[in-house]
Structures are given as structure tokens and as C-alpha cells.
Design goal:
It is a single chain. The protein has a two-stranded antiparallel ribbon. The radius of gyration is 15 Å and the shape is globular. The relative contact order is 0.15. It has about 110 residues and is mainly α. The chain has helices at about 30-40, 80-85, 90-105; strands spanning about 55-60, 75.
Length: about 110
């Protein structure tokens, strides 16, 4: 059995009723992503890795690709972004609390 094939679609432990198949809104563009990176000082909000040549990822906290509210978006390095796709309930709560901290600093 090919191990990769056995984890595709609804057999994958991260499967969320096809949510991973949703496309991104055209509003999820370079300008929006850069504004979130700037807000987060171009630093991964989990491990504090600074942005290098490779731009940091923008993560949707609630995993809904069409929710582009700035309180639902957070900057992560690639490694932490991949990590956030497992145990989604935990990470959703964790990053929601992190956003509150970021908002307090903005005041």
C-alpha cells in the first residue's frame, strides 16, 4: 500500500469536510499579507523567527480561507504554519489569544 495515498481526502487525520479544498478569496493578496507581516514585525508569532528571503506565511486562525479579518490572520514561519494544521482546536484557541496580545500592544 502506498502510504501517501492512504492519507488522501477524508482518510487524512486533518480532514475537515473538504475545507482544505476551498480556494482563497482574491482579496487574500500581497498587500493584505504584507500588512499582516508588518503588524507582526516580520516575525513568526510562535517561534520568533525573523523573515529572511523567504517571506513568512499568513495563517487563518479559524481555518476559514474567506475570513480575511485582520484578527483572524497571523504571521508564521513555514515550520510553525505546518505545525498549526494538526490539533486545530488547540492552535485556533492559542492564536486567538495571541491576537489579543498583539491588539493590546497596538493601543
Amino acid at each position: 500500500i502506498n502510504k501517501r495515498r492512504s492519507y488522501k481526502g477524508n482518510k487524512n487525520p486533518s480532514w475537515k469536510s473538504g475545507l482544505t479544498e476551498q480556494g482563497y478569496s482574491f482579496k487574500f493578496n500581497k498587500e493584505l499579507k504584507e500588512s499582516i507581516r508588518k503588524r507582526d514585525n516580520h516575525i513568526c508569532q510562535l517561534c520568533n523567527k525573523k523573515q529572511t528571503k523567504r517571506k513568512l506565511d499568513i495563517h487563518h486562525i479559524d481555518y476559514k480561507k474567506n475570513n480575511l479579518h485582520k484578527d483572524n490572520l497571523i504571521t508564521l514561519c513555514r515550520k510553525c504554519h505546518i505545525r498549526a494544521n494538526y490539533n486545530r482546536d488547540y492552535w485556533s484557541k492559542f492564536y486567538s489569544a495571541k491576537i489579543l496580545t498583539i491588539k493590546e500592544k497596538e493601543l
